[in-house]
Structures are given as C-alpha cells and as structure tokens.
Amino acid sequence: MSYHSPEHPKVRSSKLASSLPNQDHPGSGAIEDAFGPNSSIFNETTERLTSIYQQANHVPSVAARFREWQRFRRLTSVELTTDESSFTNQTYLALLARITARCFVAPASPIFDNEELLEIVNSDYFTRRGISNFGEGDIFSWLLSESIWELNLGELVLETIQNLADAAERYNFNDAYPGALDSIFQQLAPARQTIPRWLAEYIVKHELGLADQSNLSLLDTACGTGAFLCAAIE
Q1: Which residues of 69-107 are buried (b: 16+ CB within 10 A; e: fewer)?
Q2: Domain match, 35 and 95 both
C-alpha cells in the first residue's frame, strides 16, 4: 500500500493532540449513541467518505477494491446490498474499529501526528506492536491509495480520519468490554447469523479445548463480530 503523507501540518490540529482530558468510560449504549448510524459523527464521516469515493471511483485501484467488496458481499448473501452507500458505511466501520483499537492499546497516549494517524488506518501501527492480520492491505485501504493524493483529496482524507479520531479520544477504551462495537457492526454490516457470546465461550472451552491446550491456534475465516476470537483470547 502506498500513499503520500503530507509534510504539513505535522502535528494534529486536534485540541486533544496534547492531552486527553475528561475521558468518559463508554458502555454499549454510549458507544452506539456516539458512533452509531444515528450519530452526528457517523453522518459527518460517511458524507465525507462518499464525497471522496465519488471523486475517486474512476481510479482503477479504487474501483478494484469496490468490485472486490461487492464480490465478497454476494458470496456471503445475495440479499445483502452492494451499493456505494453500504461500501462507505463499512469503510466508516473499518476506520472506527482501528481507531478504537488504538485507543485501547495506548489509552493514555493521544494520537500525535498525521503520520501516526495514517499508520493506524493502514495497520502499520499495530504490526509494529506484534498485532498482525488487522487490516493490512484490506478492501478498505482504498482510502489511502496513492491516487487519492494525486487527485488532491489527501487533506479531505486526513480531516475525515482526524475528526473521527477526535471523537474516539473522548472515551476511555481501556476498560471496554470485548464486542463493544457489536451493535454498530450488526447495523452497518449485518450478518445472517449472530453467535451469542455464551455459546462461543462454551464451544471454545469445551469443544475446542483451548482452556486445556493454550498452544493451539484459532482461525475464524468469517469472524463477523469476533465472538469466537474474543472467547479464545479470554
């Protein structure tokens, strides 16, 4: 993946770039209210993402990611929509997941500059910390395509990501429970089957035997909201 990280401004213009005052401890309802489909940050972010996509959808690399996303959606279910709106909604969800993960990994450290912000989105931030398979080169990396910057859309991309990061940094995700984004995921990327957390925990512990064999690896190729993966980690 390649992109041009602009030289200026180096330090984020966010008021939260130097400190994290008065952070709230989010519950499931608070997270959905703050970031769900009815929230102002969702509407603002998806409006900008739509604008970026509409100006760049003729670019081969961007168009290829959209077609790839459509193909995966149709393989999942013919009933799922594959339009532009659903694509930008799920791009929002991918951005939100990575930014909140960064808040969880380093809750006391604000995102310092644009370079770090972009590394969170392309997952380099997590890879350097030994967290792999967290979005490297995935479908939603279209937002960091080099062509986006060639179309002079880079500043809009940065502003879009930065505003979402500012909203997330108002919350303390250090104590967030696994699956904190489940309800938003189900609304923006609905799955045909949702696995209850208690069932996932039972299967992982008693059927797969991970409780007695901690050296086993678990691969969930259609993880959805990650119920089995969360149960395995716990």
Answers
A1: bbeebeeeeeebeeeeebbbbbbbbbbbbbbbbbbeeeb
A2: yes
